[in-house]
Sequence to fold (214 residues):
Amino acid sequence: MSAPTGPTTVVHVLRHGEVFNPDKILYGRLPGFHLSETGRHQADIVAKYLTDADITAVVASPLQRAQETATPSAAVHGLEIVTDERLIEAGNRFEGKKVAVGDGALRDPRNWPLLRDPFTPSWGEPYLQIAHRMFGAVHRARELAEGHEALCVSHQLPIWMLRRFVEGKRLWHDPRRRQCALASLTSLVFTGTQLTGLQYAEPAGASAPTATGA
Fold:
């Protein structure tokens, strides 16, 4: 097989920063959830980290927290934010509820049927569907920034599904083992249209997979 040819393009996929969520609910796609003060600081750190990157396109999920996270980086590079619905948070039938282990909705027997299938999963958007839409969004960003770098702002589960998909791993997983900290960067390197590398960085520092800000 011949080696891939074409321009090198890097698509950085950024998880948004910490969200103001005093009631600690699973907010999913609900409107009105914005970055906390810490989250805004994390977005600024990422913008500074990417100052010297050759970013020519900034794309974001339509949700407020993603748009706010994208704003400082777009400003640094003098770019408008392009919104892509495919970068949105995963659909989840526990949206609006407290779902900590041993607490809230998970203690209610009426909700237990939603947990019957952890592989698809039965409580939300299918993992494979998430991976496919994310991969499509990444390729659109690659086209927008061909030969340069693009920044896509999304959410923890979609980013983790994208990573496992491109690494050829099963999509079902233990959420406690996700490597996708708040304001972290999962960067996909393309040669032409072919994925040839993957990198991960935490410019705003580490956070637990269960940290607020889905």
About this structure: The beta strands are 8-15, 55-60, 81-83, 149-154, 185-191, 194-201. The longest strand covers residues 8-15. DSSP finds four helices and six strands in the chain.
